[in-house]
């Protein structure tokens, strides 16, 4: 039978059924469109038509239906027109609706409602009568149509998000993955096309209470209702997923209202993790939340307050061991704290900036390249390194990653001030007569003055308490400067500084 003859039969049967007072049984959007075209050409008003649904073809109402099932959309907007062969044979005016309205009708056809076909026919009837406001959300029918379209699109999105495939044993044969979902609207065909593109050649099935789709790796099949619920699914790997879900659940950040708003409650019953949520929420209310918050609060940065570190510290017992120090955050990224080394009653104390990469790993100060250069300075100045106490103003290594390397990063003032607690203890215990500050960080920590500069202090010993303070360059500065003349000058300043320190010690009578 030609397309023209088929359309004529549809038209005559539809009009005859309406005149006989019989309902028009429509199972899909394609059938509704053909019937609606015939009724519109016959001038049948919506109030005289009774619509019904004998059962639906799973793929016939999908917006992505193939061109063989849905006539090719023409740019002219003749979307309800008959096929080309019939257009020649008929002289009656052809029903026309714009592409945008047809797309809305096709999407809204997936909305589950007892009168959806009657409503869609009323919309196209009004459009054909010149009431083009029917597509506007300001119109009552337009508002309902827009609401139906949004609900269907939301259901498609939710199905993408909340479908959980379970893997079947290999010996069970295809499909390899099976999922159960309970959609509120007829969106399974659209969702199936999405997973065809996403999962490639893997075989899978999505089952719903009304129908199932099966992908064999090449073709999508309508399998009919095959399952009664998620209890029919088994997955040996699901225990691993549930263990992971328990481990990432943070009771300290639990917000039940937000959880329920992000994942509607009707989805939880079919999610594997849904069975765990009630017990974990209950445990959070019984104390797990409070325990989780203890560690979280301790890690929060908060707002930086411009106040001296010692004044910002709460009244609490100070750490007695350097390894227990938590006065600043540097301990979190360092291997260990690095204390000083040397005689307990050394009369000369050398203070550097902070440990380097090798010092952080070994736990001893100045054993890397800077320490080797310092050995040369001691030898040139004829000062015995073994009689000098050597330490740093900051006890933990502050660094930033650069590829696989850890590069030195200058400590902040608040970190210098926080670590001054330990330097004070070292000075009070050893009571040195001369303190040699190597670099600006060490100088600021020793003098506890933020406005002192390294260049103004070089070669200018100053009295600080019971000790003299001599300033020299830090060994790492000598290693970094590119030109040899500056390097030799800086090295000479270090040597001369140690000689001055030795001379001040001798003048005090403590040789």
From TrEMBL:
MF terms in GO: 4 iron, 4 sulfur cluster binding; deaminated base DNA N-glycosylase activity; metal ion binding; nucleotidyltransferase activity
SUPFAM superfamilies membership: Uracil-DNA glycosylase-like
UniProt signal peptide: none
Annotated ranges, domain Uracil-DNA glycosylase-like: 339-499
Keywords: 4Fe-4S, DNA damage, DNA repair, Hydrolase, Iron, Iron-sulfur, Metal-binding, Nucleotidyltransferase, Transferase
GO biological process: DNA repair
Keyword Manganese carried by entry: no
Family note: Belongs to the uracil-DNA glycosylase (UDG) superfamily. Type 4 (UDGa) family.
PANTHER family from the UniProt entry: TYPE-4 URACIL-DNA GLYCOSYLASE, TYPE-5 URACIL-DNA GLYCOSYLASE
Cross-referenced NCBIfam families: SAM_7_link_chp, UDG_fam4, UDG_fam_dom
Protein name: Type-4 uracil-DNA glycosylase
Organism for this UniProt entry: Massilia aurea
């Amino acid at each position: 039978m030609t397309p023209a003859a088929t359309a004529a039969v549809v038209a005559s049967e539809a009009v005859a059924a309406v005149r006989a007072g019989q309902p028009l049984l429509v199972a899909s959007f394609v059938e509704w469109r053909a019937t609606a075209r015939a009724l519109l050409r016959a001038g049948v008003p919506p109030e005289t038509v009774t619509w019904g649904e004998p059962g639906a073809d799973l793929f016939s109402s999908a917006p992505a239906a193939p061109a063989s099932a849905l006539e090719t959309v023409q740019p002219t907007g003749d979307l309800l027109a008959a096929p080309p062969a019939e257009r020649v044979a008929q002289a009656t005016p052809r029903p026309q609706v714009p592409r945008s309205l047809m797309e809305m009708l096709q999407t809204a056809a997936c909305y589950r409602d007892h009168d959806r076909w009657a409503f869609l026919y009323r919309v196209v009837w009004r459009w054909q009568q010149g009431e083009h406001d029917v597509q506007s959300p300001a119109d009552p029918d337009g508002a309902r149509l827009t609401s139906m379209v949004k609900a269907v699109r939301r259901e498609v999105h939710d199905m993408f998000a909340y479908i959980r495939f379970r893997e079947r044993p290999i010996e069970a044969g295809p499909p390899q993955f099976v999922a159960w979902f309970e959609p509120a609207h007829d969106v399974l065909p659209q969702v199936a096309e999405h997973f065809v593109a996403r999962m490639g050649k893997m075989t899978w099935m999505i089952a719903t209470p009304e129908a199932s789709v099966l992908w064999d790796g090449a073709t999508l099949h309508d399998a009919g209702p095959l399952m009664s619920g998620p209890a029919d699914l088994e997955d040996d790997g699901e225990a691993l997923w549930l263990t992971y879900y328990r481990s990432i659940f943070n009771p300290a950040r639990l917000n039940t209202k937000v959880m329920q708003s992000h994942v509607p409650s009707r989805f939880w019953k079919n999610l594997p993790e849904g069975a765990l949520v009630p017990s974990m929420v209950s445990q959070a209310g019984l104390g797990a939340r409070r325990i989780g918050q203890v560690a979280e609060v301790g890690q929060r940065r908060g707002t930086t307050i411009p106040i001296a570190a010692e004044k910002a510290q709460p009244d609490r017992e100070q750490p007695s061991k350097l390894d227990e120090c938590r006065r600043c955050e540097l301990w979190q990224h360092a291997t260990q704290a690095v204390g000083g080394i040397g005689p307990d009653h050394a009369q000369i104390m050398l203070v550097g900036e902070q440990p380097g990469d090798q010092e952080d790993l070994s736990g001893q100060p100045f054993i890397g390249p800077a320490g080797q250069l310092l050995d040369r300075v001691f030898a040139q100045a004829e000062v015995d390194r073994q009689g000098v106490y050597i330490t740093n103003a900051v006890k933990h290594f502050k660094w930033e990653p650069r590829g696989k390397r850890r590069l030195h990063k200058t400590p902040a003032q608040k970190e210098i001030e926080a670590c001054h607690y330990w330097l004070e203890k070292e000075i009070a215990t050893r009571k040195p007569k001369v303190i040699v500050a190597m670099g600006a960080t060490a100088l600021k920590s020793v003098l506890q003055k933020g406005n002192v500069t390294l260049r103004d202090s070089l070669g200018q010993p100053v009295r600080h308490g019971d000790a003299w303070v001599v300033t020299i360059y830090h060994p790492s500065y000598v290693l970094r400067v590119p030109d040899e003349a500056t390097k030799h000058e800086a090295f000479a300043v270090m040597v001369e500084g140690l000689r001055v320190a030795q001379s001040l010690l001798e003048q005090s009578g403590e040789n």
